[in-house]
Amino acid sequence: MDTSKRFEKGNGGCPSIQCETNQDVLCQSCASGVVTAAHRVAQRAAEPCLFGKGGTCCRNCNMGPCQIIEGVDQMIGVCGADAATVAARNFARIVAGGSSAHMDHGRGMALAFLATARGETPYEIKDAAKLRATAQRLGIDPADKATTDLAIEVGTLLVNQFGQQEGGLALMKRAPKARQEVWAKLGVAPRGIDREVVELMHRTHMGVDQDAANLLFQAARCALADGWGASMIATELSDVMFGTPVPIRTKVNIGVLKEDEVNVTVHGHEPVVAEALAMAANDPEIVAEAKKVGAKGVNLAGVCCTGNEILMRRGLPIAGSFVQQEVVLATGAVEAMVVDVQCIMQGVSPAAGQFHTRLVTTSEKAKIPGARHIAFDEHRALDSAKEILRQAIAAYPERGKHYIPVHQMDVVAGFSHETITYMLGGRFRGSYKPLNDNIANGRIRGVAAIVGCDNYRVLEEVHIELAKELIANDVLVLVTGCAATGMGRAGLLTPEALSMAGDGLKEVLEAVGCPPVLHMGSCVDNSRILIAATEMVLTGGLGNDISDLPAVGCAPQWMSEKAVAIGQYFVSSGASVIFGPSFPTTGSKVVTDYCFREMENLYGAHWDVAQTSNEFANKMLDHINAKRKALGLDKKKERVLFDMAMRRELQTGLQDVGCHGPGA
Ligand code: NFS
After folding, report:
1. Ligand 1 neighbourhood includes 190 CB (under 6 angstroms)
2. Which residues contact 578 (CB under 8 A, 6 or more apart)?
3. What is the pLDDT of residue 663?
4. Of the four listed, 137, 172, 349, 458, which is most buried by Cβ atoms within 10 Å?
5. CA 588 from chain center: how many Å?
6. Does 453 sit in the ligand 1 pocket, CB within 6 Å?
7. Residues of the chain below pLDDT 70
8. Residue of the nearest CA to atom 7 in ligand 1?
9. Which numbered atom of ligand 1 lies nearest the CA of 343?
10. Atom in ligand 1 nearest the alpha carbon of residue 342
11. Quick one: fold of 254-398?
12. Could you say which residues bind [4Fe-4S] cluster 2 here (predicted)?
């Protein structure tokens, strides 16, 4: 890849990254000197190491590091490890790293939930109906129990799942029967949550598991403990505590920052901090303090998945996705960036340091040089939140030269599994039947999930082009994470985007008033997609298992280890997943073939890789069509071929202020 093309000098000597909003901000004089990940990609002299990229660099012991070339005798590890062992071990460690992030997040949520149930935090149980439904699913009879007692019982059971050593995970029983049988037959059903990460790390230690397939079984078990365990616990308990999302209109992109308010961006993943800040921002005491320094109030805006959490439940705006975190600061208009855990680039510290911006870390697990640390304690959540907001208010009078771009876009978000049920079937007969019926009759071709990160190493804005092509082909698109924020910037999360959908999809969604791309939340909320897929199976008419559905997932710009854990739990649950622009085992054909082909024999789903939006669309539509054929639904749907003229036509259908990698 030619990195020089990604970051050419623009007209005024400012960086020209091919993204309207980012470029607009970075070209202003106030942003001069701010270095972003896009700059660092361009400045790196060397391309990524091929051994590292393909998964065949082993540094698990001090006889190495060893770079392995598959099939070359002299290029095996000092210990004798071959490429397959090393690639499988590295892949497994990526899954362990990603899963552990969701697991620690899930545990944190479960503990905060339990503390709330005991009355020890200022949060409440906002969705008692979901609490009761969750209790029932866990085998707890909710009848005649007070909400707080029930919440303590549910919270205790779920907290215990993390340290459980034997038995199965309670929420896995939600999966279709046929899927549970697959897991039982293969022996990949998790026994507890934390145990599976520890065992995976043990097995990948030097001199333990040296059988690629055996390592990949444990990777699957660990990923399942993430998806059907930790992530699902995080989503369900966040909904019960902070409210189950319902459709809500709000805005995304850097233009949501406000000239006359104290701008506080909240960045990271765990909703407990953001929820407390949202409560405190409306506190009359805080509003009065903001007014005292000349601001109208406090404007809270999200970055990364914290943004998705507060957008889904509170309708608060998102200032930026992963690739925009430093650009948001480069406006010079942010009084504080408050971070917790995950996806926070260390580069935000020097970027904030160029301005009056207070960078505040809140988690004991994540400190950053140059940031000030205010420990967030959910037991005194409001006090902690007010202390943080006071830092921002104190910074407001120091705001100097700054620039807030005009770019912002309307979005409709809030498509929890419960909302989809309700919208499709109505309050009294909520069901997935209308979706299944319309897939069966061919108005909807199938369902695709576009999830995961955005990434400055990807040249094309794959998410957006791919989504447009899929909806034009009558595929309903589900999105989460930073992919969802990108879709929002491009205007795809509004009912107006139905103008770009195929006739069948348009007809169905116009009737229910849904956009063609449904925002289902943060990355832990990918568990909502597992539930939606399960619901489709249970509703009937589309096979007996998730692997029978005309459905497919992808993460075209994946960046974090969490994305790989998510991909693996989807594959192990029967939904094929395509990654881009690369796959982390390509240094070993043996392991890559196993992931791309053998997993299909085991799980009824496999991994794949693609690069351009067109390549993704072809593979995803082929996959959906093949599943339709297997279900006997193939005669109803011809593929619409997408050419450049159609792309241009769609482009004019909406004002696109997409913001993405630097070289689209
Ligand atoms: Ni997901 Fe969310 Fe974004 Fe990627 Fe990071 S914020 S948890 S990992 S970058 S989508």
Report:
1. no
2. 552, 553, 554, 555, 556, 607, 608, 609, 610, 616, 619, 620
3. 32
4. 458
5. 28
6. yes
7. 1-18, 425-429, 636-664
8. 523
9. 5
10. 5
11. Rossmann fold (3.40.50)
12. 58, 61, 66, 79
Distance 519 CA to ligand 1 centre (A): 14
Cβ atoms of 546 and 575 closer than 8 Å:
yes
The pLDDT, as a whole number, for residue 425 is 67
Question: Considering the domain 428-630, what is its CATH architecture?
Answer: 3-Layer(aba) Sandwich (3.40)
Please give the pLDDT value at position 4: 41
What is the CATH number assigned to the segment(s) 78-240?
A: 1.20.1270.30
Residue 79 counted as an annotated binding residue:
yes
**Rounded to an integer, what distance in angstroms lies between the CA atom of residue 12 and that of residue 22?**
15
Structure tokens at 224: 């399942």
pTM of the model as a whole:
0.94
What is d(CA 571, CA 375) in angstroms, rounded to the nearest whole number? 38
Amino acid at 371: A
What was the pLDDT predicted at 651? 55
Residue 305, marked binder: yes
pLDDT in the model for residue 470:
98
**Per-residue pLDDT tens digits for 582-609:** 999 999 999 999 999 999 999 999 999 9
Q: Which ligand 1 atom is at minimum distance from the Cα of 322?
A: 9
How many other β-carbons are positioned within 10 Å of the β-carbon of residue 618? 15
Q: Is 450 in the pocket of ligand 1 (CB under 6 A)?
A: no
Contact 544, 520 (CB under 8 A): no
Burial level of 47, CB count in 10 A (0-12/13-18/19+)? exposed
User: Same CATH fold, 428-630 and 78-240?
Assistant: no
- The CB of 322 under 6 Å from ligand 1? The reply is yes
Atom of ligand 1 nearest to the CA of 483: 10
Tell me the C-alpha distance between 660 and 664, whole Å.
Answer: 8
Residue 101 CA to its chain's centroid (Å): 12
User: Which residues are CB-neighbours of 635 under 8 A, at least 6 positions away?
Assistant: none
Contact between 122 and 250 under an 8 Å Cβ cutoff? The reply is no
Angle CA(82)–CA(84)–CA(90) in degrees, nearest 5? 105
Q: Which of 266, 487, 559 to mutate to test the pocket of ligand 1 (most atoms within 8 A of CB)?
A: 559
Q: What is the pLDDT of residue 424?
A: 74
What pLDDT is attached to residue 428?
Answer: 57
Q: What is the pLDDT of residue 217?
A: 98
Please tell me whether the peptide bond between 65 and the residue prior to it is cis, using omega within 30 degrees of 0: yes
Q: Residue 249: what are its φ and ψ, rounded to 5°?
A: -100, 135
Question: What are the structural domain ranges in the chain?
Answer: 78-240, 254-398, 428-630
Chain segment 318-372, per-residue pLDDT in tens: 999 999 999 999 999 999 999 999 999 999 999 999 999 999 999 999 999 999 9
Whether the CB of 658 sits within 6 Å of ligand 1? no
Pocket probe for ligand 1: among 305, 321, 485, the residue whose CB has the most ligand atoms within 8 Å is 305
Angle at CA of residue 453, ends 449 and 459, nearest 5°: 100
pLDDT the model gives residue 423: 80
